[in-house]
Amino acid sequence: MNKKTMLLIIPAIALLACCIAAICVICIPSSYEVYTKQIQTAEKYLADKDYDGAIKYYEMAKAADETQEEPYLKLAMIYYDNKNDMKKAVAILNEGYEKTKSEQIKNALAVYLGSAESTTVSSGKTDYNSNPVNITLLNMFGQYNYEQYSKNYTVVSDNYSDGVYTVRYNGIDAEFSYNNDSAKVVDEKAMKPFSYSFPTEIKVDKISDIINLPSQGMKIDELKKSAGITNAVAKYDNTLKKNIITFSCEKCTVSVETDKNGTIMANTSYITVNPETVAAVAQKSKVSGKVISVTTADVVSSAEVVVRKGKDAKEGESAAEVSIDSGNYNVELETGDYTFEVSASGYKKEYFNVYVSGADQEKDFSISPSLAEGEIRIVLEWGATPSDLDSHLEGTTKDGDEVNIYFGNAIAVSGSSTIAQLDVDDIDGYGPETITLSRPDGTYRYRVHRFSSNGSLGMSGAVVKVYSGSSEPITISVPSDCDEWWDVFTIENGEIKNINGATN
Fold this sequence. Notes:
The chain is of the alpha+beta class. It is built from eleven helices and 31 strands. The protein folds into four domains: 26-125, Tetratricopeptide repeat domain (Serine Threonine Protein Phosphatase 5, Tetratricopeptide repeat, Alpha Horseshoe); 131-282, no CATH class; 284-367, Immunoglobulin-like (Sandwich), CATH 2.60.40.10; 376-497, Immunoglobulin-like (Sandwich), CATH 2.60.40.
């Protein structure tokens, strides 16, 4: 039943509202599904450096599930790194710690505040006056692997040379080094650490980030009184030619230079942290879902899926064995970026970039049947909100036939031949919603309308894919300022033009 018919019978349906409401509850996506979709959309905006769009979707994800730590960390990063708003970043982290009690959020807050004399983390406090050692920062150094740093901080600079990878992050005044001397932590082919590797050494720029020193400095006996400090030893290092105090704290060994009297001073230029864990066992998470036809919204039972390591990896060996049964697949993967190659007999082969975050996730892939010569296929996909977006194709063939395809007019014909048709009309979020144009020899305009009253187009995460010929589809993302209508592109005698209003 199309939407036009549904609108005509609303008065009759009203009598059954209670029953329908009870049934609909079963069909509403879970809060976790909504959260996951919002996170995925936010990541798309962040990757495109559309920080306002990313903020909108991380806020929506936070509202969907306030116990998840990722939205708080990403929002703080955006405000700190890209908006230059430390106050907002700290406020978000404080809120996040109150809601989640996450150690990662607590650690991030300690880094953002650096050497502040007193740092308050919501209900938990770290008082550097009574305990001068930055326990929280060392806790992060002892627990974060390469993937966690990369996920939560923006890389300022990095370098690979002779098996050693070094990197600096915005918001952390330190240089992180990874090398294969004591364990296999660097992938020499990729010239980067494995996702699960810990730094072999962290060179901290300022002593004040680790120890809040009194004006007269600090000797080893005073340091030993600090909570969490063990194995404190003062010695002369023949290799460094320096007087050094070493101590253990939060699964780290810290080495700090002293003057000739054994006093740690505020102007010391040598302080290193060595996490006790260098390499960890790679953790795997499950990625599962189904392969869907864009023209029927049904599962493609003959689909095949191949997974390769890295983004846009269209060749090479499979990264893992994929189990697939009648179009439903699942695979276990380590944290990182992957390319999913999805194919089926009679369909165009497609590639999808997927980031595996360490938590189990569901990811469906929509693929298009092969096109007849000259055909153009338009596929709309989006998030959970708004629940209903509509595709509209309007125009005129070169013979003068009028075309107006939408939910209320699903097919346009000329004689016995089809000009265009609405293959799938999705009304409950995500898509696909598909139009196939068999006669592109004319002038057309493709638009998207927000049919639902909730949400806005700019916050929907909508993406349009345009298929034509044998080439890969054109992918177009919704601008963040769209509300009710989105003019996506025009077609002039089979050529895609004016994408998002940009003339070409």
